[in-house]
Amino acid sequence: MQTNSHLAAIDVGTNSFHLIVVRTNDNGSFEIVDREKEVIRLGLGSSPDKKHIQPDALERAIATLKRFKTIASSYDAQIRAVATSAVRESLNRDEFIQKVYDETGIEIQVISGIEEARLIYLGVLQAVPVFNQKVLCIDIGGGSTEMIIGQQGRMLFAKSLKLGAVRLSQMFFPDYEITKPGIDKCISWVAGEIYSTVKEIKKIGFETAVGASGTIMAAALMIQAKKTSEMPENIMLNNYSFRQNDLQKVTDLVLKKTSLKERKKIRGLDEKRADIIPAGLIILNTIVKALELKEMTVSGYALREGTILDFMHKMRPHESHAGIEDIRFQSIQKLAEMCNYDKVHSQHVCTLALQLYDQTEALHGLNPENREYLEAAATLHDVGYHISHSQHHKHSYYIIRNAEILGFSENEIEIIAQTARYHRKSFPKPAHADFSKMSEKHKTVIRKLSSILRVADSLDRTHSALIGKIEVDIEPQRLHLKLFYNGEYPEIELWNLERRKSLIEEVFGRTLTVSTEKIGLQEAANG
């Protein structure tokens, strides 16, 4: 990435879509040069069962994303778009994502609630001076609420709850009219949903509380508007702190305005948020009371800014960015260790796989992120043994797919899981439901990565690390591997490779041939 290049982050949220465009600097910092927001109500465009995104919501989304892309393109900015709860929970999310891509060229990455929490914390660290403190971050969105405890860039606790301003408005205030029974039911619902999380947070403890995003920003703006003659649009909120009694007063004020028309007149409240603010404030106030918070500080940064920083880190992984550690590697290692993996074998297969990947770059044409997927899949390919030896490759898929792996989008986790699943037995094929639902682009990635992983795993069939180094020679009709081994001749490995080489031959359109050369132990170690 060049000096002062531009990046854009798009937050595809339940209530609204947000765009920020930033100029990045060599020191790892960034400056926001443009921003845009559009209230989409993706969650309100869902079907009666609340599980499908409807055509009207899709149309609003595409029109907005086209505008966002035009803005980002004017800066020649690379775009990363992340989707949260509304898309995450939709049964037709794959169709939604594909339609958006076809119409706009924007590839949406669906992230898990825990990954959303991590990115929020990352964003908060760039706006509020709490890096060294044990900080509780709370973010109330349209579809979910994230609660995170972190310190010095390390996430100590994270929870994503299905509590959002849009979600609870639909449940308890469907016509945006406030009633006493609706308020009581909503408060009881929130109290029940947060009960166990509050207990965990109190047990871990924290020094300060920071709030981010729509509902909390709206609450802070109304509190400030009551105390100043400044026009609301001129009020600065980042690093502003409000007390619990001020929040209670604003909550009471809003809940007394039973009609939407009345709420739109409240000073400091954006008219576009007047319909969902009652539910949002009930969530916030109930959490604040349950945690006995006396004060909360507002962060002007959250998911979007965290996404930018994460984007920067992935593009320049060897540079330091405040608050970022190699969370991807740590998450992969943690899962592998939980499953009691064969560390020596997995690491050796990973080494061989990356040697193959790097030396066949001219054939596969994949990018550095795909290399990370291969590294993760190679590390985790045998975790399915934790369940059963039989069909362990399929068990590996389910373990990886359903684990909380931080630093990856859900689509990236799917690619990793499928790459691990196809390290043995059947090839990726249309008859496999999980594979068939992937885009053609990602099917190609999975086929290429799994073909490489199959070869690497074959070359350590005895789990003895006999083959220390691979040299690849690419010819028009042939892919030749020169295998350097130490100790005994790798007869079983060569036999196994012969049985499992057909996928890589098919993928790269070349016959795979092999030669061997014996080397000393020290030379193998240096290989």
What can you tell me about this protein's structure?
This protein has 527 residues and is α/β, with parallel strands linked by helices. It has three domains: 6-111 and 305-315, ATPase, nucleotide binding domain (Nucleotidyltransferase, domain 5, 2-Layer Sandwich), CATH 3.30.420; 127-300, Exopolyphosphatase. Domain 2 (Nucleotidyltransferase, domain 5, 2-Layer Sandwich), CATH 3.30.420.150; 327-526, Hypothetical protein af1432. 49% of the residues lie in helices and 18% in strands. It has 22 helices and 14 strands. The protein has helices at residues 55-74, 85-89, 93-104, 113-125, 165-172, 180-204, 214-227, 244-256, 260-263, 277-290, 303-315, 327-338, 343-359, 361-364, 368-380, 392-402, 410-421, 433-436, 440-458, 491-500, 502-508, 521-526, and strands at 6-12, 16-24, 30-39, 78-83, 108-110, 135-140, 145-151, 154-161, 208-212, 241-243, 295-299, 467-474, 478-485, 511-518. The strands form three sheets. A six-stranded mixed β-sheet has the order 8-7-6-9-11-10, sandwiched between helices. A hairpin with a 3-residue loop joins strand 12 (467-474) and strand 13. Helix 7 packs across helix 10 and helix 15 (368-380) packs across helix 19.
Shape: elongated
Helix content range: 40-55%
- End-to-end CA span: 31 Å
Classified by CATH, the class of the largest domain is Mainly Alpha
- The CATH superfamily title of the largest domain: Hypothetical protein af1432
Could you list the spans in which at least 5 consecutive residues all have pLDDT below 50? none
Number of helices: 22
Strand order, largest beta sheet: 8-7-6-9-11-10
CATH topology of the largest domain: Hypothetical protein af1432
Average pLDDT: 91
Strand-pairing-aware structural class? alpha/beta
- Secondary structure tally: strands: 14
CATH architecture call of the largest domain: Orthogonal Bundle
Strand content range: 15-25%
Give the C-alpha Rg: 26 Å
Outline the biggest β-sheet: 6 strands, mixed
Number of domains: 3
